[in-house]
Specification:
Number of helices: 19
Bound molecules: hexanoyl-coenzyme A
CATH topology of the largest domain: 2-enoyl-CoA Hydratase, Chain A, domain 1
Number of domains: 2
Strand content: 15-25%
Radius of gyration: 26 Å
CATH superfamily of the largest domain: 2-enoyl-CoA Hydratase, Chain A, domain 1
Shape: elongated
Largest sheet: 8 strands, mixed
Oligomer: single chain
CATH architecture of the largest domain: Alpha-Beta Complex
Number of strands: 16
């Protein structure tokens, strides 16, 4: 008996070494942690339970039959984050560069199936060279098996990907099917085809970092939702994100104790809006003053900065925030902002996370580059996302809500549950000067000035909308947290169903 126990320990020791000490050293030398070190950081101490530690590949080509490593380049299992379960798989770059074989994909498929069946989130940590070149079509098929499961799990359990090394080919499409992607600066990159292939096909000379580094994907392509300086920072912050997320679409949001009070009054908000309507102010200040303890997890903070998206809590329960940011492009809605916010709204709606929307938007961005780039379709994405969402929706207009953007930003007409406005709100088809110049096209300058003042007086306030019931109440800025918190508490029993359908046809 003793011998068998010792043999088990010896087998485990070998498996834990992955590709061996030399390759582990090389991994550290590149500023990266190993797969197991990463899981230790992500999961609560002693909570990791490994599955399939001894699985090996069955490839018979290129001498691979004599080159087997237990675990086959991916560590899979489950553990807890602050006591709540998650499934995990972490590619081990020290074993065949973390590349995917048939056996390797079956290990991932097993935890994907378990996560979906049990209604528990799954996190993938990627650091890999794509399809195992020695395996050919078995590796390609293996990727498709992963993609199929990613797709079926979408909207049922949260799926998160950490890109912590090179990721090419098959290792970029699985992440793209998940809810959130985070990268590590300078050590991770993602592309469908690498710099060498790019050079051959398009004659462009580009480095891996320029082609698919964290900066590119967080600020240009919007493929990734955030970036960190190193593995430790990334995994620590991932624990914080997981705390905001429900386990599945059946569980509702997690709740945790808060020291913050519902009635916290913020007098500084009474002067947040500048006297000059063309001056910007920082909408993030409002978000942070409304959420519990100022704790806000921003999603895509380096992309389309004219709109803020992210998670906070109110009275201990997670809420998704969408807010126009007047500090960038005056908070205008353009294609990028619309796509960013639409995807976030849809995530919240899938997982029963209520949505709070703060509005200060001068309209949609005019111009050929926007129109040629499909602003109509992209703007419609956000419109569609808000219109189909059945979760509680609380909206507050702080200043401008002009034109189509008024409709889009969770207006009463899109089934907003509580639509508030500050006294500084201006709800109109467009700004006063533009409106008057169209209506009184042939008037003198003096007449235009007089008409502009009259238009401002009549329309640039929240009361016309409030008279019609499109705004439920004009509220004092200092009471915003209390009003939003009370609305959300009331709406916790909200029931609203859309008509039956196989699935919708969102304008992609
Ligand atoms: C088998 C691989 C491998 C792969 C790397 N290795 N990629 N083994 N299949 N795809 C092995 C190497 O042989 C090496 O083994 C070890 O991993 C580390 O690799 P290095 O090249 O030494 O590391 P580095 O210099 O850091 O370069 C990493 C890399 C590079 C950029 C990922 O290895 C690379 O370009 N690999 C090939 C990438 C690729 O073209 N994959 C196929 C994509 S197509 P030793 O024993 O020396 O440690 C694809 C199709 C699916 O994925 C599409 C589905 C939609």
């Amino acid at each position: 008996m003793r011998d068998i126990v010792e043999e088990l320990e010896e087998r485990r020791r070998i498996a834990r070494l992955g590709g061996g000490e030399k390759r582990i050293e090389a991994q550290h030398g590149r500023g990266k942690l190993t797969a197991r070190e990463r899981l230790n950081l992500l999961l609560d101490p002693d909570s990791f339970e490994e599955i399939d530690m001894f699985v090996e590949h069955d490839c018979q080509e290129f001498g691979m039959q004599d080159n087997k490593v237990p675990g086959d380049g991916v560590v899979t299992g489950w553990g807890t984050v602050n006591g709540r379960p998650i499934y995990v798989f972490a590619k081990d770059f020290t074993v065949f560069g973390g590349s995917l074989s048939r056996s390797h994909s079956k290990k991932i498929n097993k935890v994907q199936d378990m996560a979906l069946r049990n209604g528990v989130p799954i996190v993938g940590i990627l650091d890999a060279g794509g399809a195992r070149i020695q395996e050919g079509v078995d590796a390609l098929g293996g990727y498709a098996e992963v993609f199929q499961r990613n797709t079926l799990a979408s909207g049922v359990i949260p799926q998160i990907t950490m890109i912590m090394g090179p990721c090419a080919g098959g290792d970029v499409y699985s992440p793209a099917l998940t809810d959130f992607i985070f990268m590590v600066r300078n050590t991770s990159y993602m592309f469908v085809t690498g710099p060498d292939v790019v050079k051959t096909v398009t004659n462009e000379e580009v480095t891996a970092e320029e082609l698919g580094g964290a900066k590119v994907h967080t600020s240009k392509s919007s493929v990734a939702d955030g970036a960190y300086d190193n593995d430790v920072e990334a995994l620590t912050d991932l624990r914080r994100l997981i705390d905001f997320l429900p386990l599945s679409n059946r569980t509702g949001v997690p709740e945790r104790p808060t020291f913050d009070v519902r009635d916290r009054v913020e007098h500084s908000l009474d002067t947040l809006i500048p006297d000059n309507p063309n001056m910007p102010y920082d909408m993030m200040e409002l978000v942070q003053k409304v959420v519990d303890e100022g704790d806000f997890f921003e999603i895509q903070k380096d992309f389309a900065k004219n709109i803020i998206t992210g998670f906070g809590r109110i009275e201990g329960k997670p809420v998704g925030f969408v807010a126009n940011q007047p500090m960038t492009l005056a908070g205008v809605l353009d294609s990028d902002a619309s796509r960013k916010a639409a995807r976030f709204v849809r995530f919240c709606d899938c997982f029963d996370v209520p949505i709070v929307t703060f509005v200060d938007v001068p309209g949609f961005l005019p111009g050929t580059s926007q129109e040629y780039g499909g602003l109509i379709k992209h703007g419609a994405k956000l419109l569609f996302a808000y219109a189909e969402a059945t979760v509680p929706k609380v909206t507050l207009i702080t200043r401008k809500a002009y034109g189509g953007a008024y409709d889009v930003m969770a207006s009463k007409h899109l089934r907003g549950d509580f639509n508030y406005a500050w006294p500084t709100a201006e709800i109109a088809v467009m700004g006063a000067k533009g409106a008057v110049e169209i209506i009184f096209r042939n008037s003198t300058e003096e007449e235009i000035l007089a008409q502009t003042a009259q238009y401002e007086e009549r329309f640039l306030n929240p009361f016309v909308a409030a008279e019609r019931g499109y705004i439920d109440e004009v509220i004092q800025p200092h009471n915003t947290r209390r009003r939003v918190a009370r609305a959300l508490a009331l709406l916790s029993s909200k029931k609203l169903d859309n008509p039956w359908k196989k699935h919708d046809n969102i304008p992609l």
